């Protein structure tokens, strides 16, 4: 029936309702939360702040959406962020050029992504096991590379690039837009999207249909590694330092939550990139509002947990019986 | 007062009315057949009866008592058991665990495994099946999985049993044993509902036949007062055209050859040769290695030895991807596990076939939709392009696989039970399509348990037994084929035409 179809369509916007509801509640209960102003050629306000703070999670979650759509998971994104940040800082210490720093970070992301892909695709390890191991190993490698200190990153041009505000918007937010556009084009304008969703939905059938399932899944881990490395660059240039112990800690959890709130099924078969971004924004809006409100951290955790549950429930494709 | 009575049952899905004001009843000691085209609503009715779907309207009573089961468990408590169209075993559990799921024999320390396995063995032995019940469901062929589903239903205490295409993955011998069992249960006064596409089976078994068309009940007939032709007309709403009796002529040079194709422990070396446009039948009993041969041909499993040649030149086929590159495609036996991406739409599943040819270039959305609409029309698939394949009826899913294969413009297709669950009208349509492609030079390796179907299509039939090639029959008849499958090959070597004895 037409009404059923309309209902399905409306349900697919669930993450947006969560974002709007969160924002409205925050704006209502938190003084100055809704304020927006144009100051010194830049847009400022709590909402913009939430956007900027959400950038690392948004970047990592975009890559993670592809991995999850392929039926996998990547727990190493937070550690990759730290390793990429340290790598960029170390290189800029030695060399100073922004290009070299970027190349180092992306190279490390690519390397870890390829490693994850190999473990999962070629060796057939369960994705959660393989990436849990690399989460631990990569965090260790980052700390080793940092030599137990916080590596400063002020000599590189990197900071200036990401601190720029073209059109009044933070450069890092534009970076999210670029990565989203690149992934969306790969998904919707190339066979990659179809191959990915088919491989995630039923890898056996996809393989028998002649699809390069292994290559596609390998690619998702590489892309997730690259996306996490970009997040590392953003974090490092924001705080002008790379802290190998705390950078990106628990980031993978927020990234998974963003993907789940976005409605990408954890069982694979669908990639909802834009919805993932909306999910990440909703999470950060909530966090920013609670911070401004001065909520005690333990209360904030409770609230976050409840919001995530409600959001994940509304993002479910159907309200029908889960088993049957 | 009948054991089972339904009145005015209605069930709607987005875009279709699957059941529309259906009345249905089953008497004690009766086998009531339910027939109809693909998508007519048979499985939906079976699901309503077992609480897997809830009816939107209508009443439902068991022994005159109004009921409304909301889960298979509740249905079973009411005495309603079912064998569903799609095998529904838990892949990781053993066959014994699956068979007695929820009814495990308990002791104070937990499940009594020995008793569990003994009971499972006994239930299967009643059907004449000897399989290792400790094996995981995912490791045994579809036919055996289906036997477990049947044994599970039969060993429950249900007094009303529903069989939704139970014979789809069974060989002749298994079917006969199942029928004997069903007749015995009829003698004990059970009420049984039998869904099938083979009218031969329906008339062999049923007391009454109810025909559904587009979700509506066309009529209920007493089996020995009607005939197959009348039933087909009621199903289709028109008379069935004669099935195309065209046997493609084995013409010209060999296009494809397999030499010494083997897989350790699974398949003994086999030789095959096919000319363009030729249809080669492959047959054998359940477990004779038909599916293994089909999978080995396209490189679906590792560890296959032997050589494949295309026009005399060796080709490397180590994966289905390599096979597709030389134009070799498989329609796998188990459509749900190996064939389709159930979560994707009809359009996307079909696009997979052409997308491979286009490599990584994008096949535009408009082109995909056009492709889907074309094939939906060509094969009469009851679906819209954007419908999720998982929501299609079984026979329509099978058509989607075939459409994907043909859309890929193959040179040789290996069809492993391609008409399983497809209704009589659609079967003729599919056969005509395949014959049409064969005329244009497509070679076909045709595997089917329905012997007359194989005989109609293929002049040459390769018979497998115990995972090796037993004999190749040319222009044989069904009786000769049956004997060869059962192991009487020596008497049948060469043409079997005109011979009868033995
Ligand atoms: N979950 C669902 N969502 C949408 N449509 C559905 C769903 N389940 C069934 N249908 C539709 O309901 C109709 C009846 O389906 P059903 O499975 O009962 O057919 P059937 O008679 O069993 O056919 P077959 O012989 O192919 O098994 C079909 O058009 C099918 O596409
Ligand atoms: Mg059905």
Total strands of chain A: 4
Biggest interface: chains and residue counts?
Answer: A-B, 26 and 38 residues
Distance between the first and last residues' Cα of chain A: 22 Å
- Spatial shape of chain B: globular
Distance between the ends of chain B: 51 Å
Number of strands of chain B: 22
User: What hetero molecules are in the model?
Assistant: adenosine-5'-triphosphate, magnesium ion
Task: Describe the protein.
Chain A is mainly alpha-helical. Chain A has helices at residues 2-11, 14-29, 46-69, 77-94, 98-122, 127-146, 158-163, 171-189, 191-201, 203-208, 213-239, 251-261, 273-293, 297-315; strands spanning 36-39, 42-45, 151-152, 241-242. Chain A has a domain at 51-252. Helices cover 72% and strands 4% of the residues of chain A. Chain A has a two-stranded antiparallel sheet with strand order 1-2. In chain A, α4 runs antiparallel to α5 (98-122) and α5 runs antiparallel to α6. By secondary structure, chain B is an alpha/beta fold. Helix content of chain B is 35%, strand content 25%. Chain B has a six-stranded mixed beta sheet with strand order 6-9-10-3-11-12, with helices on both faces. In chain B, strands 18-19-20-15-21-22 form a six-stranded mixed beta sheet, with helices on both faces. In chain B, α13 (365-379) crosses α14. Residues 489-502 of chain B have low confidence and may be disordered. The interface between A and B is medium-sized, with 26 and 38 residues.
């Amino acid at each position: 029936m037409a009404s059923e179809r309309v209902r399905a369509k409306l349900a697919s916007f669930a993450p947006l309702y969560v974002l709007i509801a969160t924002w409205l509640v925050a704006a209502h209960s938190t003084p100055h939360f809704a304020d927006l102003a144009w100051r010194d050629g830049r847009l400022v306000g709590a909402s913009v702040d939430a956007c900027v703070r959400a950038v690392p999670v948004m970047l990592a979650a975009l890559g993670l959406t592809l991995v999850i759509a392929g039926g996998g998971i990547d727990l190493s994104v937070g550690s990759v962020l730290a390793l990429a940040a340290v790598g960029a800082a170390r290189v800029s210490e030695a060399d100073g050029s922004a290009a070299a720093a970027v190349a180092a970070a992306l190279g490390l992301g690519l390397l870890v992504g390829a490693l994850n892909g190999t473990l999962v695709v070629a060796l057939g390890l369960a994705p959660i096991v393989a990436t849990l191991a690399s989460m631990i190993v990569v965090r260790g490698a980052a700390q080793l590379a940092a030599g137990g200190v916080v590596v400063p990153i002020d000599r590189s041009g990197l900071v200036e690039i990401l601190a720029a505000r073209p059109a009044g918007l933070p450069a890092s937010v534009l970076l999210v837009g670029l990565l989203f556009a690149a992934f969306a084009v790969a998904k919707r304008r190339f066979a990659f999207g179809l191959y990915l969703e088919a491989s995630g939905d039923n890898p056996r059938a996809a393989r028998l249909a002649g699809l390069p399932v292994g290559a596609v899944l390998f690619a998702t881990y590489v892309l997730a590694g690259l996306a996490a490395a970009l997040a590392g660059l953003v974090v490092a240039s924001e705080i002008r330092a790379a802290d190998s112990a705390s950078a990106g800690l628990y980031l993978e959890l927020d990234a998974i939550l963003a993907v789940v709130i976005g409605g990408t099924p954890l069982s694979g078969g669908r990639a909802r990139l834009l919805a993932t971004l909306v999910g990440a924004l909703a999470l950060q809006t909530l966090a920013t509002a609670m911070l401004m409100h001065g909520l005690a951290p333990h209360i904030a955790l409770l609230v976050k947990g409840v919001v995530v549950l409600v959001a994940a429930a509304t993002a479910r494709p159907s309200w029908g019986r889960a088993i049957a | 007062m009948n054991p089972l009575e339904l009145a005015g049952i209605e069930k709607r899905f987005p875009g279709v009315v699957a059941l529309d004001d259906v009345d249905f009843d089953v008497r004690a000691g009766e086998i009531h057949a339910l027939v109809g085209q693909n998508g007519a609503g048979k499985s939906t009715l079976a699901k309503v009866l077992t609480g897997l779907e809830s009816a939107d309207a209508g009443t439902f009573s068991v022994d005159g008592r109004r009921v409304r089961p909301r889960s298979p468990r509740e249905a079973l408590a009411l005495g309603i058991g079912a064998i569903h169209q799609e095998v529904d075993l838990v892949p990781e559990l053993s066959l014994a665990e699956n068979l007695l799921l929820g009814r495990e024999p308990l002791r104070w320390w937990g499940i009594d495994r020995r008793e569990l396995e003994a009971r499972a063995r006994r239930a299967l032995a009643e059907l004449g099946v000897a399989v290792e019940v400790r094996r995981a469901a995912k490791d045994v062929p579809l036919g055996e999985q289906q036997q477990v589903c049947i044994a599970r239903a039969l060993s429950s205490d249900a007094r009303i049993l529903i069989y939704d295409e139970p014979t789809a993955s069974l060989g002749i011998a298994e079917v006969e044993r199942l029928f004997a069992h069903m007749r015995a249960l009829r003698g004990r006064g059970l009420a049984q509902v039998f869904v099938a596409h083979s009218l031969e089976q329906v008339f062999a078994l049923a007391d009454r036949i109810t025909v559904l068309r587009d979700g509506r009940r066309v009529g209920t007939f007493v089996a020995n007062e009607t005939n197959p032709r009348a039933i087909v007309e009621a199903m289709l709403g028109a008379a069935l055209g004669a099935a195309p009796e065209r046997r493609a002529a084995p013409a010209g040079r060999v296009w494809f050859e397999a030499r010494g194709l083997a897989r350790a422990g699974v398949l003994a070396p086999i030789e095959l040769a096919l000319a363009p446009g030729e249809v080669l039948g492959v047959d054998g009993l359940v477990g004779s290695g038909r599916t293994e041969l089909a999978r080995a041909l396209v490189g679906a499993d590792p560890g296959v030895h032997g050589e494949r040649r295309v026009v005399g030149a060796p080709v490397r086929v180590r994966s289905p991807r390599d096979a597709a590159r030389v134009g070799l495609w498989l329609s796998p036996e188990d459509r749900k596990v190996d064939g389709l991406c159930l979560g994707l739409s009809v359009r996307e599943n079909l696009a997979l076939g052409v997308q491979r040819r286009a490599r990584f270039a994008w096949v535009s959305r408009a082109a995909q939709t056009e492709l889907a609409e074309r094939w939906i029309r060509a094969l009469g698939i009851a679906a819209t392009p954007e419908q999720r394949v998982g929501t299609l009826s079984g026979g329509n899913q099978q058509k989607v696989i075939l459409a994907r294969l043909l859309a890929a413009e193959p040179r040789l297709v290996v069809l492993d039970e391609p008409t399983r669950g497809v209704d009589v009208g659609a079967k003729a349509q599919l056969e005509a399509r395949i014959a049409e492609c064969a005329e244009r030079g497509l070679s076909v390796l045709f595997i089917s348990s329905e012997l007359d179907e194989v005989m109609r299509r293929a002049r040459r039939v390769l018979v497998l037994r115990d995972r090796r090639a037993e004999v190749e029959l040319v222009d044989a008849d069904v009786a000769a084929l049956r004997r060869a499958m059962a192991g009487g090959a020596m008497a049948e070597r060469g043409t079997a035409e005109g011979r009868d004895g033995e």
